[in-house]
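Shift notes (night). Ran ATP-dependent 6-phosphofructokinase while the centrifuge was going.
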Amino acid sequence: MKRIGIMTSGGDSSGMNTAVRAIARAAMDAGLEAFGINYGYKGLVEGNIFNMNSLKDLDTIVNRGGTILYSARFPEFAERETQLKGIEQLKKFGIDALVVIGGDGSYHGAEKLTKLGFNSIGIPGTIDNDIPGTDFTIGFDTAVNVCVDALDRVTDTARSHQRHFVVEVMGRGAGDIALWAGVATAADAIVIPEREYDIKAIAEHLEENRKHGKDYGIIVIAEGVMSAADFKEQLDQYGDFDSRAITLAHVQRGGVPTAKDRVLAARLGDYAIKLLLEGKGGLAIGIKDNQLVAHDIIDTLENHKHHTDTTLLDLNDRLRFK
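Came back to this:
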């Protein structure tokens, strides 16, 4: 193995750049050439590929959000013919293995390449924290901290105006952001896709709070359940809460990555090169109990699912104002 390719794909997440730097630096340290691929799988098929060994400013990207390799939607990569075109480009540039940083869709692309015989490794990079085989994904911690900061600010206003705010955070299929941010900010209710909820019971809890002197409230809801606006409309049917709906949206993705995300990205990037040097590929790597792990990428995606720690909901219920 002489050359490796590096790609970011799907939604951007803070820490991706740190992972790119770690992969490239670890490859160079091992005497390999590192090639960056711009615009994800679209750039791969189009041959938007460049040698990163000459870049002298890699160390300056660790504190930058987003991805210097960019990203792009490319549903056409689901087609076998398009996948083969991607492999042709990799071979044209003499690239022997590919490291893909991204979420579920990005992993499926790497899985397709693996099935076609091209050595690929997936690194979990998504704010949703919804990748099987790892406790945490790159960007999750930063996104949670962004949400915590926003929720703290909203709580100040809620308290000042005796209002109830429904705050929508990202997470279509996984409620991890809502869970962690909600527990961290003592939310009155957390609503996620992984567990059924009773909006009437939530309204009754808020009314009970009023009787005991708490005349404001915060409800954190994952986008995969419904929009904040729709939840507010339903909530208002059970009482006069003077409620407001807020959607944090894409502010959760960007910004300076936390130390935790930077260290995780550095460890995973270095680990990917270590595995490739050992002749291993077709893997999804991650972290479990603070230990780096690697699993067969095909088995991981086809036979395993991410598990959200819903016990945090029970914790929040026990600790909330009553």
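The chain is about 40% helix and 20% strand. The chain has a mean pLDDT of 96.
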